[in-house]
């Protein structure tokens, strides 16, 4: 049962100060400042979304793994995307639910920076995967005769490794800068997870270098990926609307429609979360900033499998077939 402990979070705002530069043993997350009275309902909503994300992404990974007809580049990238979505949601949601339910807001120093590293690295990997999926869609529609020659298994593996290495290169210096700062003030993080700007503000040193590095790095990664994705879909739409057959146009648009929906779910709240923290920090209430950052990590993993499962005909048929097979096997055993 969830027990909402409002006094604990509010008391923490004025406690846990010290005057040592030694790393603190633990930090304290307050959840969503100003919305403590809604923590129980937020915990229920997050639990439902997290369960949907886990079940949906695991189902998609299972179907792609066991079905030999889905061994295509698009489904390989979708498999990796589902795995990244699980990491992204799992890095923050269990702790957030614990805070909202029981008031268990303590998180150790090492656990905090581990959470920060994996949460932000997963977002950097996801944007790269969305670019790879846009490239896959472009090749499939604009250069269908060269599809299998261009997107070979070594090429797909290389693309995946470059995306992961890029995220590691971006996150490692950022985590090092924040984790090696002197923490001689409050250990209370005004957030529901160890978001790097919220943690950097607690250091006695100037948080500007790490915050500026994060802003510039995020803008370069997200901006360049979004620009290439936009260019890809511009070419895709030109090719689609040049087709003489209406059925062919609808089929091509349906193929990439799910991709575009997932990208909108990821980039819109993501860019809002990044720039509101910088440009609107004095205008946008703190609880709104925290909610944006939370939903940015939870909504895409929850809705990605639903969009791909419902909009992609081949995936829908394979998922339904797998579920029916499992139900029939269960009934036969019964």
TrEMBL record:
UniProt cross-references to SUPFAM superfamilies, sorted A to Z: Family A G protein-coupled receptor-like
Subcellular location: Membrane
Record GO biological process: cellular response to lipid
GO CC terms: plasma membrane
UniProt superkingdom: Eukaryota
Boundaries of every G-protein coupled receptors family 1 profile domain copy: 56-308
GO molecular function, one term: G protein-coupled receptor activity
Topology of this chain in the membrane: Multi-pass membrane protein
Record carries keyword Transmembrane: yes
UniProt protein name: G-protein coupled receptors family 1 profile domain-containing protein
Annotated organism of origin: Loxodonta africana (African elephant)
């Amino acid at each position: 049962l969830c027990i909402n402990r409002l006094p604990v979070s509010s008391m923490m705002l004025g406690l846990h100060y010290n005057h040592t530069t030694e790393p603190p043993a633990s930090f304290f997350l307050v959840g969503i400042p100003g919305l403590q009275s809604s923590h129980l309902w937020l915990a229920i909503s997050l639990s439902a979304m997290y369960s949907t994300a886990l079940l949906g992404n695991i189902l998609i990974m299972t179907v792609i793994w066991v079905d030999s007809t889905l061994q295509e580049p698009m489904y390989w990238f979708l498999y990796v995307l589902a795995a990244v979505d699980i990491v992204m949601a799992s890095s923050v949601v269990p702790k957030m639910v614990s805070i909202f339910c029981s008031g268990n807001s303590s998180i150790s120093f090492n656990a905090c920076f581990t959470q920060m590293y994996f949460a932000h690295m997963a977002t950097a990997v996801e944007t790269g995967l969305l670019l790879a999926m846009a490239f896959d869609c472009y090749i499939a529609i604009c250069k269908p005769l060269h599809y299998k020659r261009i997107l070979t298994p070594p090429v797909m593996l290389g693309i995946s490794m470059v995306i992961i290495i890029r995220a590691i290169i971006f996150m490692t210096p950022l985590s090092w800068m924040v984790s090696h700062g002197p923490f001689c003030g409050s250990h209370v993080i005004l957030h529901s997870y160890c978001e790097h700007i919220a943690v950097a503000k607690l250091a006695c040193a100037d948080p500007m270098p790490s915050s500026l590095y994060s802003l510039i790095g995020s803008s370069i990664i997200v901006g360049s990926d979004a620009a290439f994705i936009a260019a890809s879909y511009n070419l895709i739409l030109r090719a689609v609307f040049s087709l003489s057959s209406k059925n062919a146009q609808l089929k091509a648009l349906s193929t990439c429609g799910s991709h575009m929906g997932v990208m909108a779910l990821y980039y819109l709240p993501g860019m809002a979360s990044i720039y509101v923290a910088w440009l609107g920090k004095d205008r946008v209430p703190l609880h709104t900033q925290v909610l944006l950052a939370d939903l940015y990590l939870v909504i895409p993993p929850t809705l990605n499998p639903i969009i791909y499962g419902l909009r992609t005909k081949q995936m829908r048929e394979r998922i339904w077939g797998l579920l029916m097979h499992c139900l029939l096997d269960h009934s036969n055993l019964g």
